[in-house]
Amino acid sequence: MTFEAESELAEQEVKIFSVSELNSIIKGLLEGRLSEVWLKGEISNFKAHTSGHYYFSLKDEKAQISAVMFKSINQKLKFRPQDGMEVIVRGKITVYEPRGNYQVFCEWMEPVGAGALQIAFEQLKAKLQAEGLFAPERKRPLPYLPKHIAIVTSPTGAAVRDMLNVLSRRFKGLHITVVPTKVQGTDAASEIVAAIEKAQRLKDLDVLIVARGGGSIEDLWSFNEEIVARAIAACRVPVISGVGHEIDFTISDFVADLRAPTPSAAAELVIKNAADLTHKIVQIDKTLASQFRKFLQMKMQIIESLSKRLIDPKRYLQDVAIRIDDFVGRLEAATNNSLSERSHNIRHLSSQLKSKTETLLQNKFRTWTRLSSLLDGLSPLRVVERGYSIVKAGEQVITEATKLIKGSIIDIRFAKGRARAKIEEINLET
Question: How far apart are CA 199 and CA 304, in angstroms?
Fold first, then answer.
């Protein structure tokens, strides 16, 4: 700061604040003057923190302001805020002194346009539908004639009286258990869930009805709670939802195995009318008797037709005997013809075999004679007979004098007889 600036501050006696002092003054001014504000704006940058608190901004076309809704308050909301949703909030302006930021501390929130309950209904419906809890393949068929029916409803409402009247009128002797519960109010949803769980512990339970009479969306809201929907989906027996009037739809209707437009309609859907069943049985009995008579008549006609075609057994046996004799005669003739033909063929083949054998033997004999003469002509014995002899030293035939050794013993074979000699002299001249 220059000397001139310091002099000017001294003459004016200006109050100099620290940053924290200024933020504290702003906090007091804002929170004192604006203890409660109502704001309308569009949600943006929405974030549900792991702590459970909601942090977001409220904006219009020119400006925006930060906002927070703590867990203890946002748990009471019937819907879940999301970006782009236009809302009206009631709250207080608060200043976070360390950063000098101000924001709206929201204590209440309501959507603009559709009500909070309607938005909460659509959000939960979309969520459960995405999980497949409304899928048709999950729906279980009702038992044809249930013996034990449980009804989860208010024990003092008109709905339970209407259902009991309908059930007693349609079918006598049913085992009906009313499981009492609150059907509207703060704790109604948890009581309905407890009643459903209690009903499932009943022995031999076949089907469960969850019902209440008509009312506003606020009156019926317990049946739009997620815990009730999941309890119905997890029930071990088929569930009929009979909540409100025909125009009313709840989440329970979508997740149940069957939706009834009213509690009385649920009682009509759960059990067949005994009078209708009796009439149907009588009709079936008449139909069966008529069909059986037609069946017997048809069989009698078939028997009569077959009896006309039936012949005397003796005559049948005689015909069979004649046919057998005919077959035997034909078989003998065929056998004789076959044997005669085979005998002729055998004789013919025997004659051919004999002729060919003789011819073959003659040819073989001539060949043998020729080869014998040829072999005999080539025999060394024939050469010996012409004055030559065969000289062997051991097993070796001697053809040259060079192969002889002086003093060795040789064998000499003549045309007639043999001789053994000792080599005294070897002459290599020819």
Answer: 64
Do the Cβ atoms of 301 and 204 come closer than 8 Å?
A: no
Decide if pLDDT at 429 tops 80: no
What are the tokens at 187? 């704790």
User: Which residues partner with 344 through β-bridges?
Assistant: none
- Confidence at 387, pLDDT banded by 50, 70, 90: low
Q: What pLDDT score was predicted for residue 190?
A: 94
Q: How many CA atoms lie within 13 A of 41 on its CB side?
A: 22
Write out the two tokens for 4.
């001139």
Q: Average pLDDT, stretch 217-239?
A: 91
In the block, tokens 């008509």 appear at: 214
Identify the structural domains of the chain with CATH numbers, from first to last: 3-113 (2.40.50.140), 121-272 (3.40.50.10550), 384-422 (no CATH)
Q: At 389, which amino acid appears?
A: S
201 vs 150: CA distance, rounded Å? 11
The Cα 179–Cα 85 span in angstroms is: 41
Which percentage of the chain shows pLDDT scores above 70?
Answer: 88
Residue 141 carries which DSSP code?
P
Helix (H, G, I), strand (E, B) or coil at 252: helix
CB-count burial class (<10 Å; 0-12, 13-18, 19+) for 92 = middle
Q: Note the pLDDT of residue 198.
A: 95
